[in-house]
Design goal:
- The chain is built from four helices and eight strands, in the order E-H-E-H-E-E-H-E-H-E-E-E.
- A four-stranded antiparallel β-sheet has the order 2-1-7-8, with helices on one face. A four-stranded antiparallel β-sheet has the order 5-4-3-6.
- Helix 2 packs antiparallel against helix 3.
- The longest helix is centred in the first third of the chain and has 18 residues.
């Protein structure tokens, strides 16, 4: 049985993606942490999971049904934070709408499909700029640089994105338009 690695996320607009990618590249150049460059800037709603190729249509149908009942959400990026001693990220405000969207996704999609429960910590929305290959020593240097820096941006996200790993990096597989029941169906 062939299967691929997927995750479900919200991707910000192109301007924010460019700004965040520049920070990821800076962390790669300055602190030798390139792992974050292997995915587009995003807020993870459901972390990576393996899914069989023959069941991808079922996964897509479930996400399509869910997205028809979910509303667009605003991402509010504000400053930097860290999961010591390996991860530096841009803080994303855990707004009620964002927390509700994530919880509803788990309830409506992940649980019925029996996606593996990979979430070990409570949902903490963030956009990673350095992780995994960031050494503890470089983490301390980078965190000293970023902890007091400002970063502010906000945007509305109208699509849920299913990403797939191609063996080298994460790429967008399919987008699902978020439209609450009150919105007309195109």
């Amino acid at each position: 049985m062939n299967r691929r690695h997927y995750f479900i996320a919200l991707l910000p607009n192109a301007e924010i993606q460019e700004r965040v990618t520049r920070l990821k590249q800076y962390c790669c150049d300055r602190y030798q942490s390139q792992a974050a460059l292997r995915s587009p800037p995003h807020v993870t709603l459901y972390p990576p999971f393996w899914w069989p190729d023959e069941s991808v249509e079922e996964l897509e149908r479930s996400l399509e049904t869910f997205s028809c009942q979910a509303a667009p959400v605003e991402l509010i990026l504000d400053g930097f934070a860290a999961f010591a001693p390996r991860v530096i990220y841009i803080h994303v405000a855990p707004t009620p709408a964002l927390k509700t969207l994530q919880a509803q996704l788990v309830k409506a999609v992940a649980k019925p499909l029996n996606l593996p429960p990979t979430q070990r910590h409570p949902f903490t929305p963030h956009m990673t700029i350095a992780f995994r290959d960031l050494t503890k020593e470089n983490f301390h240097h980078a965190w000293a640089e970023f902890r007091d820096q400002s970063f502010a941006a906000r945007c509305w996200v109208s699509h849920l994105t299913l990403l797939v790993h191609n063996g080298q990096r994460w790429q967008s597989y399919r987008e699902f338009l978020l439209r609450s029941p009150a919105d007309p169906v195109p």
